[in-house]
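Tokens in:
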């Protein structure tokens, strides 16, 4: 049985990660390598299945060459 997204916030965060990754023309594996994360973690974050923490947000921001605030700005808590 497929897992459901954790919350609307995790889905929105994942969509922001996907949009930035695609703008940079990176694969999930390339982003994972640049971020120091496992590719499966990146995949779960992008699909809203993983409620990631601050450390991973900071790592993703490095891999996505963006400010961490850009990934969460304007988001409301779940």
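Residues out:
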């Amino acid at each position: 049985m497929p897992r459901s997204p954790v919350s609307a916030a995790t889905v929105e965060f994942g969509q922001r990660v996907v949009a930035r990754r695609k703008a940079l023309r990176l694969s999930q594996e390339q982003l994972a390598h640049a971020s120091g994360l496992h590719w499966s973690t990146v995949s779960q974050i992008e699909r809203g299945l993983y409620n990631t923490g601050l450390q991973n947000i900071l790592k993703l921001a490095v891999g996505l060459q963006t400010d961490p605030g850009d990934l969460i700005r304007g988001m409301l808590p779940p």
